[in-house]
Amino acid sequence: MEDNPKNPFSPEPKNYPHLGILSFETAKTMSRLISLYKSLSDNEISRLRTDVTKFEGITYLNSKEEGFLLSLACAERLEDLDKAAIAVSRLGHKCSDFGSNRFDPFFTNLKLGIIDLEKLEYKSKETAKTVDKMEKLIAATSGLYMALEALTELEITERKLKDWKDNSFMQLQNSSFDFFNQKLEHQRKQVCHFREISLWNKTFDKSVGLMARIVCIIYARICLVFSPYVPNKYTPFSEQLLPHPSPIQKTSKPNLLLMFYSRKSDVLFQENKDLGCAKVNAKGNMVFHAAGPSTVGGSGLALRYANVILLAEKYLDSTASIGEYVRESVYQMLPENLKSLINAKLSKNMKSAEDDALLAKGWRDAMMEIMKWLAPMAHNTVKWQLERNIEKMKFDSKPSVLLLQTLHFSDKEKTEAAIAEVLVGLSCICRFENHQ
């Protein structure tokens, strides 16, 4: 039974199972899909080509090869979509509708090229309506989540007040009790309202139906905009199915990033000499684990180095002097090889006290230039981790940061040299401030 297209919150058949508590995980999956959908807009694809892949930090630390960077972007988007599709398929098993119940083999056939992608229009009015419905349901479910959290806190307070009921002082505060009870009753009504209009009250069939359509549209869009980088063995998708040419043209030789698809699993082989060679289990993050030992991420240092850079940025922008404890804390965050590099640079650049002012000014200017491209990479590294924290309940549908925008694929030697320059500069500035 279809909803009235003008009202995405219209009643559904009561004999069909509703999402209930699964509405929050469903909203997370919907948010992930909308984020993917928005990341494939004309503006976002143009920004990827003209800004992201040309950003100084990315070209210096990660790669100058636009083809390799675009293949990474394509692979990560495909992987994110596969994870969302798995969640949709799992919910589909609870559906009454035969088609929704068998979404998994349908999506497999789509990727094998058995289903015509040309009918899945990214910019159609029908697609826009579907996205609008999903965004409203996400917002309502987010409202329900916050309302339930507030209600839980109020109910805890209610139990405490009942325990204090015999206290003579509390008995004099009847007006306060009345006000609290009104607030509690209002909050319960809020929860009931959001349950009615959110995914909580939607059937599995309706929810999966919306998401399944968007999954297929996103896949078709990826094949269109990244057509030179969708590996042939991932799908036998043919160019004659494309109604328009790809906005991303092949800029380098293929085989930088190869993905092989089978009905049971996806296996990624990395054949870039700078990143090493990796064969990754489909259950893991394939693109994430493709970083070789010569990269920051492959060495397991991406988040640690990002935090060091952000601390340096904080104190560089601050007028407050950096204390000995802070400097020691930052120093202890570094691996031994980077400590040795910094000590060697400090010894080489030591000057007399009368030169400190000029030296400090020169270091500050040099650090500012480095931080223009290094700090955004660190911010993106932390943001990427936060966006993919599966323990947090998030309903953000903005386009997410790509792994290629982080320190993960950065050359370890170049990154450590840049961090050393920044920390030596900070040390020089601190020495000048102490003399002052």
UniProtKB/TrEMBL annotation:
InterPro entries: DUF3475, DUF668
Domain DUF668: 295-383
PANTHER family (alphabetical): BNAC09G50660D PROTEIN, OS05G0457600 PROTEIN
Pfam name, any one: DUF3475
Domain DUF3475: 21-76
Coiled-coil positions: 117-167
Swiss-Prot/TrEMBL keywords: Coiled coil
This protein's name: Avr9/Cf-9 rapidly elicited protein 137
